[in-house]
Task: inverse folding
C-alpha cells in the first residue's frame, strides 16, 4: 500500500520558518507529481506548490502566487521524501497542509485536488502575529 506521512507543522510567529516533510511509504519512484495543498477553515483547499517527477528526480516546480519567493518544494530521492521549506511565514499561511501524490491521469491539472490519487493526513501550521 501507499502511504504519505506528513510532519513538521507547528505554531510559529510571523516571520518564522518551518519545514514540512512528506515521507512516502510504498514508494515506487513512479509518481509523476507530488504537491502540497492547504486548507484553512471556511476556505477551499488550494494548491501551494508542486514538483514534477521524472525518473525518480524532481523537475519543474510550481508555486502559488501567494507563496512564491517564500516557499520551496524539493525532493530527496534517497529518503523518498518531499519537503516544503516555508520562510517569512505570515498569519494568512495558517492552514492544514496536505501532501498529495500522483495524478490519476497525465492530462489532469496538477493544481486541482481532485486530480490526485494519494493524500496524507495533513499537518497543522499556525502563524501568529
Result:
Amino acid at each position: 500500500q501507499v502511504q504519505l506521512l506528513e510532519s513538521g507543522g507547528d505554531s510559529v510567529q510571523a516571520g518564522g520558518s518551518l519545514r514540512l516533510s512528506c515521507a512516502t511509504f510504498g514508494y515506487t519512484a513512479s509518481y509523476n507529481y507530488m504537491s502540497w495543498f492547504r486548507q484553512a477553515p471556511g476556505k477551499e483547499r488550494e494548491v501551494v506548490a508542486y514538483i514534477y517527477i521524472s525518473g525518480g528526480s524532481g523537475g519543474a516546480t510550481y508555486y502559488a502566487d501567494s507563496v512564491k519567493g517564500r516557499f520551496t518544494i524539493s525532493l530527496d530521492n534517497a529518503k523518498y521524501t518531499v519537503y516544503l521549506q516555508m520562510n517569512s511565514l505570515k498569519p494568512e499561511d495558517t492552514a492544514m497542509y496536505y501532501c498529495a501524490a500522483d495524478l490519476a491521469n497525465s492530462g489532469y491539472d496538477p493544481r486541482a485536488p481532485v486530480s490526485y490519487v494519494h493524500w496524507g493526513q495533513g499537518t497543522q501550521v499556525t502563524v501568529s502575529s
